[in-house]
Amino acid sequence: MAHVNRDKKKLLSRVRRVAGQVAALEQALQADADCSAVLIQIAAAKGAMHSLMMEVLTGHLAEHVVAERDEAVRIRETATIVELLRGYTK
Amino acid sequence: MAHVNRDKKKLLSRVRRVAGQVAALEQALQADADCSAVLIQIAAAKGAMHSLMMEVLTGHLAEHVVAERDEAVRIRETATIVELLRGYTK
Amino acid sequence: MAHVNRDKKKLLSRVRRVAGQVAALEQALQADADCSAVLIQIAAAKGAMHSLMMEVLTGHLAEHVVAERDEAVRIRETATIVELLRGYTK
Amino acid sequence: MAHVNRDKKKLLSRVRRVAGQVAALEQALQADADCSAVLIQIAAAKGAMHSLMMEVLTGHLAEHVVAERDEAVRIRETATIVELLRGYTK
């Protein structure tokens, strides 16, 4: 997972931002915040999770598929990714 | 947001579980974990966020629409929810 | 489903547009069109399906929940809708 | 788009099934069918569209990325796909 190493700082800062959004959400629930505001916060945190997914997927494809010289490995890695994407949304 | 108060304990425990998933994700990235495993963890955390969204939405509908006696308020609250759902997914 | 009757023309024109998109997709596949173009067409047709879903949901909520005087019916209809939304996306 | 040629029969039969679902939906709206039933039909047609997307994506990756010998082409094709997936869901 060298690409993650390469992009590690960027991904870690992104995942920490998501952690911050979840912490803010917990506080909003604790403070009995307005319900629509809470729904908007949840939707935003879920959207940030999707962006993170796309970021990790991009790095994964770049290293294990695009840059991979062995076609057998490319086949295997691509199958894993498609399987993941199939169940990722509806 | 009395329904959130009523279900507060349940929702808070759910949001803390999501926070735990995001923390585990940060550790996996720090530890250069296997990339497919990371993608699976992100997908799971995103799914947990969706379940939380549905939980808060259920409580919101129950209190501000179903139990609401004033039809004008029901109209307003429903419009807000539909607007939210429209942009929530694709 | 009187709201659908009321909005019937609008909904029917929308569903026919989706049918047109699916027919164009079939032609593109028949004509061995460029693959990225096909993927974009599929994504667009899926998006149109989501808009239709939101349109029918809006009418359904308006009639069977918002305008419904019997709270027991509002409870039942809302439960059905939340159940549907839960499995609608991830 | 040779992979689509290869899988053409399979994809065409799938897209025709979606067309059938959309036609059934139009009839249901025409016949003032029960609203929940209509919502379930729309969700099913949208799900079929997602399966079709995954099918075309699988073939596209297999041919233009996995089997592609030129790394520059693999880079370009993968970038297009990631861009598409980014906006495909939320």
TrEMBL record, chains A, B, C, D:
Record carries keyword DNA-binding: yes
Organism annotation: Tahibacter aquaticus
Recite the lineage of the species.
Bacteria, Pseudomonadati, Pseudomonadota, Gammaproteobacteria, Lysobacterales
Keyword flag DNA-binding: yes
> Do you know which Gene3D superfamilies this protein is assigned to?
Metal-sensitive repressor, helix protomer
Q: Name one Pfam family in it.
A: Trns_repr_metal
Which GO terms are recorded in the biological process aspect for this UniProt protein? negative regulation of DNA-templated transcription
Which family, according to the similarity comment?
A: Belongs to the FrmR/RcnR family.
GO MF terms, alphabetically ordered? DNA binding; metal ion binding
- Know the name of this protein? DNA-binding FrmR family transcriptional regulator
- Which keywords are on file for this protein? DNA-binding
